[in-house]
Amino acid sequence: MALDLPFSLQLYTDLPGHEDCAWQVAWNPAKPLLASCSADKSVRLYSYRKDPYDPSKLSFSYLTTIQTGHKKTVRSVAWAPSGKSLATASFDANSAIWEKSEAPEDGEDPSESEEWECVGLLEGHENECKSVAFSGTGTLIATCSRDKSVWVWEVKPDAEYECINVMMDHSQDVKCVSWHPTEEILASASYDDTIKLYIDDPDEDWFCFATLSGHVGTVWSLVWAPRGDYLASSSDDLTIRIWRRSAKHAWEFAHQLKGHTRSIYSISWGTGKGDNLGWIASTGSDGKINVWEISESPQRDAARATLSSRLVASVSSAHGVYDVNSVQWCPRSGLEELLATTADDGSVRIWRLSSTALVSDRECT
């Protein structure tokens, strides 16, 4: 039965994909670039710009392929906040940092200089690396692995990277790491069904200060609300749970979303528009993309504010019969309605969230 929803997801473009399963996609926060990674051991870069024939539209194009040299699947890809560095995490147990060999001069077409080189190799995990993430300042990197560990690395001058802490608080495979957008708080999600939160103590050792329990299946994905006072998680249990800060170092369950029929592999929290808390996009093994509007009822005590949600858009079979592995909102101003997805078929797709009324008007013209 078709749902009567206020927004629709329109396929904007289908980009040249990978030769094998595409695991993750990441928008560059500072430049018109998009990266995807794959079981084919490569990273693909795409660029976009205003369409010369219609400035109201964007034109996406394939830019280059980074042959990473990883010996196994590249499972995760992440940009530094500056947009200058790119991190990859691989099933070969290593993570790597990449930078463009020679940046183009101002005004030069970026496609004229797209050689990327490995400037750092993060070694030490015993098994497959599942996720890599830069902190909001870009001075720290987190990695996690099937070896049940979470590592924190310090980014030093001259492209040097030093492991400053190893946390072994999970009892199973760690699937995801995610940094708070403005504070040095790190979250990790695991096959053990829990979420761990970490901070740095005065003795310069990182430690787990909270465990969030409630999921009854593997926790695949984590994402912070844009303003940082909420954390969302997705799971094999077919739910998305939203957690809120109740005190300086205390977090609690606040809200739950349901709308998938199989495992939810990826979620992304966009800024949205209006006075709400933004949009959460979700996707997974059922091939569906859902978009939820998250709202907060004002209360005198902010920690007791009531969250509400409504499904505003949904598309089934987003990549045909294939599982969809990653969904990411574009973080750049003016492009908040754009989503990127990757799937088991190796493809990378761009979607635009549009008002259903506007879409209907276009169809009538």
From TrEMBL:
One example of a Gene Ontology biological process annotation: iron-sulfur cluster assembly
CDD domains according to UniProt: WD40
Keywords: Repeat, WD repeat
WD repeat spans: 15-49, 67-99, 122-156, 167-198, 212-243, 257-302, 324-361
A single GO cellular-component term on record: cytosolic [4Fe-4S] assembly targeting complex
Pfam families assigned: WD40 (PF00400)
Top-level taxon: Eukaryota
Ranges in coiled-coil conformation: none
SUPFAM superfamilies, per database record: WD40 repeat-like
Job description of the protein: Essential component of the cytosolic iron-sulfur (Fe/S) protein assembly machinery. Required for the maturation of extramitochondrial Fe/S proteins.
Family designation: Belongs to the WD repeat CIA1 family.
Protein name as it appears in the record: Probable cytosolic iron-sulfur protein assembly protein 1
